[in-house]
Structures are given as structure tokens and as C-alpha cells.
Amino acid sequence: MTESVDVFTSRPSHLHTSTPGFARGEIATLTCERCRTSRLPWELRTFGDKSVCSTCYGATIELGRAAIKGMPADEPNRACSSCRALLDPSLGSAWCAVPELGDERARICANFVPVAMDAARDAVSGGRVELLDLWQSLSDDLRSTLGEGSFATWFAGVEPLSMDDTTLTLSVPDEYTRASLEGRFSSVIRHALGERNYGHLTPTYTLETEPAPAALSSSVVTKAKAGFNPHYSFAEFVVGSGNRLAHASALACVDQPGTAYNPLFLYGGVGVGKTHLLQAIGQEAIDQGKGNVIFATSEAFTNELIGAIREGSTSAFRERYRSANYLLLDDVQFIAGKEATQEEFFHTFNALHQAGKQIVLTSDRPPGELRILEARLRSRFEWGLSADMQPPDFETRMAIVRSKASARHRRIPETVLNALATRAGSNVRELEGALNRVLALSDLLGTEPGMEIARSVLGEPESEGNSCRPADVLQAVSAYYRIKTSELAGPQRDRRVSYARQMAMYLLREEAKLSLMEIGSHLGGRNHSTVIYSCDKVGESRNKGRVKQDLQAIKQLIYGVR
Q: How far apart are CA 561 and CA 197, in angstroms?
């Protein structure tokens, strides 16, 4: 006996081919109607009229429960049956049949319309109510005929626009959807219209268009940019090999907000340009009139929340952050351990993400390494794109110093630029600080910035005899722990090798004065966040117990007994 399975959905929209349907024996996948990821059919759950994955289901239920707690209890005129948001999205988010939430589900959404509004229903002009009722009925029929998956794939983005004596006009998201509705689904739609006694209507389709953003006045732009550093713009950001992906994804967030990479998570060590890119996104969005932009540090977010709780204005706080078109949060790692802040940010994140608003976050390490942070937040931070920002290499440091000098309208000899790029530090802040000291000293002395001034600022370069070579560190660590140098740079993760590798990273940083990127290169190409973690871990225990003894012993192997 051969068992067959009926497939009620088509491939995800990005996998459409000229031969629709599934090959025999092929496993059908459905798309979560919230996060749009492909899932196996048994991994989806029904939420109201949508099929969502377990992650989105749990997040939405939790958001609903939190909304219930925040609603006042004296609202006798609210009921699920009166929710017009189901028919007109302009009224707000639609929370329909959610039996898991119990009898209080009618008070989830502040956009529910009181029952008394139904009495004035027929007074709505232009036949809009009749149009919405017709489309709701057609949607129910099409969902029953085609199955939940196919309906979501082809009709979720369709909106009713108008209706007259002969024509039903529908808005579709793209040309491919229009061709499919006019072709393969034409007979199904006409049959559904006939079943509802609207067989005389001919469906027509038009592509949805986004309204052009209104130009903002200069005074409005200036006010919106208050709190932004005018030098933190895309024009002044120097692109190099270590930040190319982050720069490209930041531009995409401005061009395609909420759709390209959401959230965008930028991570890297200090002074690599995370805040620069974050503010550049905000200022460019303001210049293009892309809506309300909020830039804040995690500390500011926490302090605002504490103030709102103290003053009883949490509703205003939520409205401010959840009405943003762009939420740009700097140093998000600092909300770890703050339970109330994490709870509020979790719900703010969900509200913005479900509304298609752009979220951009920065941190000193990738989401997976923020162990103290709640797992539900870490998983959401990994939802979009995580872009690593490495310390600048020599060519990028040269370009940064040259750009900073040009911005100050100063001409600096190449030898001085080379000295700054080589010895001033490994991040942008250190480079800019050294450049500022060179220029200030030259202005004070009334001379051009030359090598004499550079040497007085940077000091004399260390002679080769007084420096510690990376090879000396690796050889000493290998000898002390009786492991091969190749194991330090290899993929092994057992405790013995991992501990030795962390010690090597710390000593390469402290004794050989290598940059994070150079340390990672010497140890198998590990990223800078791993190096930061190892250096911090060893540094915290460098004066305690075994770590202290090991460091002293290894240094004796490097330098000899002193």
C-alpha cells in the first residue's frame, strides 16, 4: 500500500519555479506568518487566523499577557466581537480569537472598538464597511478551499481597495502575485464571489505603492538630530576590510528599513566604529524623512524606564519607544542582569519587529556570547544579521588618520601619518587622540607637525632587543603546558588546551603588545570577541592562585630568570 499526503501549500515565495507543486516524496514546508521562516508543518501552531512557529507563538502569547496586566479593569464595553481592527488595519493591531488567554482576551488591545460603535456601523460612508465584510467572507472561503498555507502565501498581502457595481479592486504586493491571482486562482476567486452573491463583480488587481515621504524642513531635521554627533555620518566613515559588511548592512537598513536586516546587530571591540555607524543610520534616516528615529544607550533606556516607573508614566515611555520607526540602542550588553529593563525591552522589541520597524543594536561581543542576557533576547538578537567589526588594519588606519587630518584642513607629512598609523594604537579613538595631540603640540610650538613632534607624542619606538616576540610567547606557553604550538592554533576545545590558549592570548596582548586581530591571526584566525573574552577572563584572575603562578612561570621562560 502506498501512502499519500495532500500538500496544502506551495514553496516559499523565493523558491517559486515554473513547475508549481511538490515532487512525489518531497517534504512540504510552510512559512511562519510572523518571522517568515520555513518550518515543517507540525512545527506550526494556529494563532487566530495565522500559522506561526512555536517561537513567535510563545512571544505573542507573552506579549498579550503583559498587555492584559497593563490594561485598566473598568472597561465593560470591550468585547472581542466588536474588534474592527480585524477588518481595518488602520485601527491598530488585531487580537482576535485567542482562547489560550481566557475570558480576559477582550482587554488585550487598546484599539478594540466599544460595542456601542456597532450601532453607527451603517453610517460609514463610501461602502467601506460592505467592502471589508465582503473581503473577510471571501478570505474565510478561500482559506477553507486552498488551505491555511496556500492562503497565507498568496493572499496574506492582498488588501481590498474599492468596489463599485461591476468591479472589485484589490491591492497586491508584487507583479508575481498579481499574475498568479489572475491566472491559476482566477476560477477559485470567482467561485467564492458567486457563493457570496457577488458573482457580478470582476476582480481587478493593482500594485500597492508606498507614499513618497514628505520633505522635512531644516528646522525639523535639526531638532530631530539633537543628540547626534554631526561627524558620525556615512560620509566620514572610513571603510576597510574589517568593517565592510557592517557598513553595507547599515546602508541597507536605511534603504530598506525593517526588511533587509532586522534586527541589525553590530559587535566589536572598543573604538572600532560601532557608535559611528549607529548614529550614521539615524542621521541618514532623518535626512531622508524615514520617520521617527530614537537613538539611546542602554544606560539611558534603563534610566528612562526607572524614571517612568517612579513617576507612574510607563504608558508614555512605552508609547515613545514603540512608536519609533528606527530604534538604535548602543551597548545593549549593559542591560544584562537588569530584569525589569530586559522585560520592557523584550516587549518593545516584539512590538517594533512585528510592526516592521527597524532595530539596530551594538555590543562588544556577538549575541551568543552574552550569557548573562535572557535566552529569549539572545535568540531575537540573532534573528537578523550579526556583523562583526574588526580593529582596522594598517591600510585602514592610514586612511583614518589621513581623513581626520583632512577634516581639520591640515596637511601632515606621510612619515608622520605612517608613525601614527603604526604606533598610535589599534582603534579609531586612539588614532584620533594621538593625531589631536600632535596637532595641538605643533600649534603650541608654532611649527609644522613633523617627526620630532610625533616622537615627543608617541615616544621613541621600542628597540628589537627590548620587545617580546609573539613566537617567544607561543613557545613559552607550549613548553610550560607541554602541548604543541599547533594545538594552540588548532580547533581543539578540551579544557587543557583552551586554558593554555587563553593564557597565550593574554600574554600576546600584554607582553607582545599585539592588536586583537593580530592575536587572533597567530592563534588560528579566531575573532576578536574570543580574544577579548580570554584576555578579560585571565586579567580578572591574574593576581590569584594558579593563574598568578602560571603567569610568573611563563614570563620567566620568555625573559629568563631576573
A: 98
Sorted by where each begins, the domain ranges of the chain are 28-111, 125-207, 218-389, 404-461, 466-559
Nearest to 262 by CA among 99, 382, 172: 382
Q: What is the pLDDT of residues 424-456, one digit of tens each?
A: 776 788 888 888 888 888 888 888 888 888 888
pLDDT number for residue 52: 78
Instruction: Tell me if residue 9 falls in helix, strand or coil.
Output: coil
Which parts of 287-412 are beta strand (E)?
293-297, 326-330, 358-363, 385-389
- C-alpha grid cell, residue 288: 531622508
Distance of alpha carbon 238 from alpha carbon 242, whole angstroms:
11
Instruction: Write out the E strands in 173-257.
Output: 202-207
Lookup result for grid cell 485567542:
98
Among 312, 361, 313, 309, smallest CA distance to 335 is for 361
Give residues with Cβ within 8 angstroms of 319, minimum separation 6.
none
Say yes or no: domain 218-389 is CATH 3.40.50.300.
Answer: yes
Determine whether domain 125-207 maps to CATH 3.40.30.10: no
Question: Counting runs of H as helices and runs of E as strands, what totals does the chain give?
Answer: 22, 12
292 vs 300: CA distance, rounded Å: 18
422 contacts 302 by C-beta, under 8 angstroms: no
* Topology at the third CATH level for domain 466-559: Chromosomal Replication Initiator Protein Dnaa; Chain: A; (1.10.1750)
- What is this structure's pTM? 0.49
pLDDT tens string 347-388:
999 989 888 899 999 998 888 878 778 888 888 888 888 988
